[in-house]
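Hi F.,

I've been meaning to write this up properly since the lab meeting, where we talked about keeping a consistent format for the predictions we share between groups. The idea is simple: the sequence comes first, exactly as it goes in, then the structure tokens exactly as they come out, then a line or two of notes. No screenshots and no reformatting. I'm using this chain as the first example so we have something concrete to point to.
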Amino acid sequence: MISSKLQKLVLSICAPLLLCGVSPALNRPGSIGLEITTKSPQARAYFESGLAKWQTLYSEEGLANWRKAVKADPDFALAHIFLANFSTDPAEQIQERDRALSTRKFAGPEEQLIVDWISNANEAHWIPAIQAMNEALDRYHDHKQLFWMAGMWLTGQQQWGRATRFYERAIQLDPEFADAWNSVAYCYARTRQFDKAFVAMKRYTELLPNEPNPQDSFAEISRMAGRFDDALAHYHASLKIDPGFVMSQIGIGDTYALMGDEARARKEYDLAMPKAPNKILASQWSLQMAITWVREGDYLHADQAFRALAAYAHRDGLGNIEAEAYRSMALYQEDHGSAMKLLKQAEAVVHETHNVPKLLLDQELASILRTRIERAVQDKDMAVAEADLKQLGQLASTSSDGQVDMFYEGAAGTLAFARGQYAEAVDHLKEEDRNPFSLERLVDAYKKTGDKKQADAVADELAGFNEPVIDQAVVVPQFRKAHALAPGHQESAREFRYEW
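Output, unedited:
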């Protein structure tokens, strides 16, 4: 499988390091756990301050500090590559990647490996990216920030279990590394290990009691677990610490949306929108607001909201977001022709010239093809589904990106199920474990193979899927309705045995 290629590359060097009990000396107290080469003490201070800000979700302040760092020292390759990696502005990502490559010669050996790793990943050159990451981790196995970065990268690839091991290694190096506790908690939650997630979150809040982000993260993980009242309490606690912490205001909107109170959700989003720090986040929040109309079944207002967002994204050159608006619309269209027209429009946008990293465009194209295959199978248009699977397979074969690969797996499983190849469908669908469409079909595939225990387990997972994304809005409420489940606590799902 394509996914095994990525897994083997990532683990080829790191697995022995992580599993054989290497115990290097810990970093000295206060050490950032990362090589930093700059001719400017001021640039170094800005860089370290930016990292601290970014790791407590003061993302814009963190980025602002890194911009100050490269202004103080234009040859500061590490700061350039951090901007390329963490900026939400596609144009800045490309610009800073190029600057990192041009200033690479001024950096130390560890920083050069980080530049090679991130710049290649940014361009979807996965083999050299993974080789550089592995070499850095092997040579600098006592640098906690490297392991944190590897965990973040794998998290972006939705490789939760593998990311967990890197975060745990960072914590082993520094038990008071707050963001590693935060990040590993999310990985535990996304693999439904909520008991471990809440233990990690408790430790995170203990380490940073006066920061809003621990409460914000506690809220999000509570929401993922279906504990909506707890989530709202933690979000409000975050805003009590810092009333300007806008991510918690958005989180309140997301929580009401998932609770089914869409009108209240829109009011909460409206409070946050004027405080959006940049056009990227504003457009992402607009997507979340548009989804509230879908949950209400008000497709006229949903169409209006998504089209307005597509126009906004087009004007600002955000091709991946413009395409996502059209893809989102296609998911709830009742007419097959209308859905396919929107998906062709989305694909056409991706193929236009954009100042957006290839990685983001590849991921969006894969998502569009995955959706088109889903719609084609639903409407029994197997010729289109087969052709699109071939195109998606070609895209996946040239990329080791985890998200692209998972879209392929979900699509292949969808077609296998449609052909009656249920065991094969299970093998593919279980690889795309964060897509409600795949989870719903996986329930049916397990039923067809006679594995009721696994069908019940996946049904629990789907019923408890509480993330504010369009795919959830289209699939999960209807699934709950069909099985007489209300939004909320996971316990209600576990106590209910599904009647097949």
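Notes:
Confidence is low (pLDDT under 50) at residues 1-31, 489-500.
The CA atoms of residues 319 and 352 lie 8 Å apart.

If this format works for you, I'll send the rest the same way.

G.
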